[in-house]
Design a protein that fits this description.
alpha+beta, eight-stranded mixed beta sheet, three-stranded antiparallel beta sheet, 8 helices, globular
Length: about 325
């Protein structure tokens, strides 16, 4: 049996929403005619759910960029601040893994560089799923955390920064030429928590593209050959994403944010003390439940960013809790 295309799936979903809406309206009329408030309330709740589903479908229909349907890499780097920012980077890595799992995407950890005492210096995730890049692309930027430090014996409040960089997996439809003479290849021993799969040889691979300064690394496999092949694919993806930036002014502005992981470049603030608040500084969307956001509930922020990116101007702001 032929699989339905994404367009056919969207059309079928919209037709289903229309049928469900007609049923709910008919149910309201029936409930009002019979004076049954519970039936009316149930139908109204159904309409609210349909409204939310229609909004999600609308956003998904807007993911029409040439790479939006592709899998994606999410790269995380700790900012200045040592253990504090490295712990924050690890929290972000967990947040994106949980977000991907909520969306039923598959996640592979391509590379992790551990911090000296706690947390991570950097990590690269591979997120696999339909429209993975389209959904994740607006997460690129600097993320700011404010909390009482668990590493400070005086229980002082600290501000930490980490950067997130999102770029699409390049598939066979996209031809990106890489001159190997312009690249430096290094091998190193993979880091991690250890266990039966820990590498004991220099199987991890890092490739530096000298003209652009782009660095990619892979340690997902125990074979250096496989890690090298994956690293080349990651580099092609980064170079392709660089080309996309040249066509899109907003993406170019986001690229500049990566050069300085600190004040003035953040896209979102996560405040755990003295109050509880996560606020997106681009759209104004906020949540008073940071723990839920850090557990992967990112879609309200992402949907608002996508809508703003497509339509421009202000988006409707409300507390998402």
């Amino acid at each position: 049996m032929r699989e339905r295309t994404a367009l056919e799936e969207n059309i079928a979903a919209i037709e289903q929403i229309e049928r469900d809406l007609a049923d709910a309206v008919e149910l309201i009329a029936l409930g009002e005619a019979e004076g049954d408030a519970s039936v009316v309330e149930e139908a109204e709740e159904s309409i609210r759910s349909l409204q939310a589903e229609a909004a999600r479908r609308q956003i998904e229909a807007l993911l029409s960029g040439e790479a939006d349907q592709n899998d994606t890499y999410i790269e995380i780097h700790s900012g200045a601040g040592g253990t504090e920012s490295q712990d924050w980077a690890q929290m972000l890595m967990r947040m994106y893994i949980r977000w991907a799992e909520r969306r039923r995407f598959k996640v592979e950890v391509m590379e992790v560089t551990d911090g000296e005492e706690a947390g991570i210096k950097s990590a690269t995730l591979l997120i696999k799923g339909h429209n993975a890049y389209g959904w994740a692309k607006t997460e690129s930027g600097v993320h700011r955390l404010v909390r009482i430090s668990p590493f400070d014996s005086n229980a002082r409040r600290h501000t930490s920064f980490a950067s997130v960089w999102v770029y699409p997996v390049v598939d066979d439809r996209i031809d990106i030429a890489v001159n190997e003479s312009e690249c430096r290849i290094d091998t190193f021993r993979a880091s991690g928590a250890g266990g039966q799969h820990v590498n004991t040889t220099d199987s991890a691979v890092r490739i530096t593209h000298i003209p652009t300064g782009i660095v990619v690394a892979c340690q997902a496999e125990r074979s250096q050959h496989k890690n090298r092949a994956t690293a080349w694919a990651m580099l092609r993806a980064r170079l392709y994403e660089l080309e996309l930036q040249k066509r899109e002014e907003k993406a170019m502005a986001e690229a500049a944010s990566k050069t300085d992981i600190g004040w003035g470049h953040q896209i979102r603030s996560y405040v755990l003390q003295p109050y509880q608040l996560v606020k997106d500084l681009r759209t104004g969307v906020q949540s008073t439940n940071p723990q839920e956001v850090l557990d992967g509930r990112l879609d309200p922020f992402i949907e608002a960013s996508l809508a703003q990116r497509v339509y421009g101007g202000e988006v409707e702001v409300e507390d998402i809790d």
